[in-house]
Design brief:
Oligomer: single chain
Helix content: 55-70%
Structural class: mainly alpha
Largest sheet: 3 strands, antiparallel
Strand content: 5-15%
Number of helices: 12
Order of helices and strands: HHEEEHHHHHHHHHH
Length: 240
């Protein structure tokens, strides 16, 4: 792609002129675009969606999904990274969580029981009034009735049943995001759900999950990178 091909989306100054592009920056952009085009050329349409044969999941499953955007993103990662592994977190790794594990699809009863037991370890007085209101609103949006909070007293099995009913209403891409946030960030039950139900956004979520880290530390930047990929995975998987 030449300068003219890039000009339509490159940022402009207040006068309307394109921000100057250095030859070095232009070469990087062109290289990435070439890799993106190469990745796209390897994605094939099938009767059930789109497939990429350049790699399989960690468990050996084919890369196949209804979202072309998601499959192209995996193919692009394969083109840009020297080695693609599920342990190197990105879109491919998130896809492996979806494809290789039953947990996001099934939301099994033992997971619901574990989530409830983990939440029951905290009392209503252990969170601020602001967080309590956030968690109550989250429950209101998803569950048939609140299962945790001040003045709420439900047996754990009943709470797990109500939670399971609510969880299974979530689109599969949101269930994958929940499993990733809960497992990777020890985010508990209601904070990931608050993001997925749009009570807060991902930027607010990452603020909660990095407030114990030093600003710009490796830990903070690593967490922000993970959250960015989790957010992107949801957008890509839901794209038509």
């Amino acid at each position: 792609m030449n300068d003219e091909g890039i000009a339509h989306w490159w940022p402009k100054t207040r006068s309307g002129r394109p921000v100057p592009i250095s030859p070095r920056m232009l070469s990087y952009i062109e290289a990435d675009l070439n890799l993106l085009n190469a990745a796209r050329s390897q994605v094939a349409r099938t009767q059930l969606g789109f497939a990429y044969g350049g790699i399989r999941t960690a468990a050996g499953h084919e890369i196949h999904h209804q979202s072309r955007c998601l499959v192209e993103a995996i193919a692009f990662e394969r083109e840009t990274l020297p080695e693609l592994e599920a342990g190197n977190f990105g879109i491919y790794s998130a896809f492996c969580t979806y494809r290789d594990f039953d947990m996001p699809t099934e939301m099994p009863d033992d997971l619901m029981q574990s989530l409830v037991a983990g939440q029951w370890a905290y009392g209503a007085g252990d969170v601020t009034a602001e967080v309590m209101q956030l968690f109550l609103e989250t429950q209101r949006r998803l569950l048939s009735q609140p299962i945790w909070g001040a003045g709420i007293d439900l047996p754990e099995p009943e709470a797990a049943r109500i939670l399971a009913e609510g969880m299974r209403k979530l689109p599969i891409e949101k269930r994958v995001q929940f499993v990733l946030m809960n497992g990777m960030h020890e985010a508990g039950l209601f904070l990931p759900l608050a993001v997925l139900l749009e009570c807060i956004n991902f930027e607010e979520y990452v603020q909660y999950k990095t407030q114990g880290f030093a600003p710009d530390s490796c830990e903070e930047q690593g967490r922000r990178t993970e959250v960015a990929f989790i957010s992107l995975y949801g957008d890509l998987a839901a794209a038509k």
